[in-house]
Design a protein that fits this description.
Blueprint: H1 2-7, H2 10-30, H3 36-39, H4 44-59, H5 67-70, H6 79-83, H7 86-95, H8 101-107, H9 114-129, E1 136-145, E2 154-155, E3 163-172, E4 178-183, H10 197-206, E5 215-217, H11 225-233
Parallel strand pairs: 1-5
Antiparallel strand pairs: 1-3, 2-3, 3-4
Amino acid sequence: MDYLKLLLERSMTKEIVEKTNACISILRDRVKQHAKATFKDTCEEEILALIGVLLLSGVNKDDHVATEEMFRPTMRIPAHRSGFSERRFCFLLGCIGFDDRATGDERQKEDPFAAMSQIWEVFINNCKQRYCPGENITIDVQLLAFRGRCGFRMYIPNKPAKYGLKIMRICDSKSGYMLNAMPYLGKKTKPQDAVALRHYVTMKLCKPYFGSKRNITGDNWFTSVPLVKDLLEK
């Protein structure tokens, strides 16, 4: 818990609670008859519990399991049911927010990632500060499964999920710890006058480790002669 709070510092959880409660309040006003236990405001402890359950589900590879099965007493571990009911769990996932929805549509015209960008930047900065990588770093792409409405959702047929959000990231080769990452936002991923996308992404993600004499490994998408020359200079 101490380490989790280093990555998800209190300012972040307070922001998530505030934005989530704003969404819950809107839903309460719309639904005349509702269960008070399900529609009540959330708190920092409950948000941390929600994140904990999601992390635990990932460790147990339960991402494909229905929530009904996750919360079934005879089928799954009791940790899921210790914090909230299945109905409350699904309700929180539907309401959780990271941004001011009142101004979100306007800001997304300039920043497609506006709904997450503020929390994302703090989280990534914490990831960089809390861990010192070894001599070998790997850069690659991850497709986070997602089928909702999103202007930069990708379709990659050779990936297991096929549809999702493309995240370009660098990790410590030995531990797999994520050191830095950025989302693919289509044409707005990089400035219009910048170099090729692979060049721009690699240099931006690896910038914190320039001059450290670390080895960087990537596949052919992250490879070009100008990029290798620039990395050698750094």
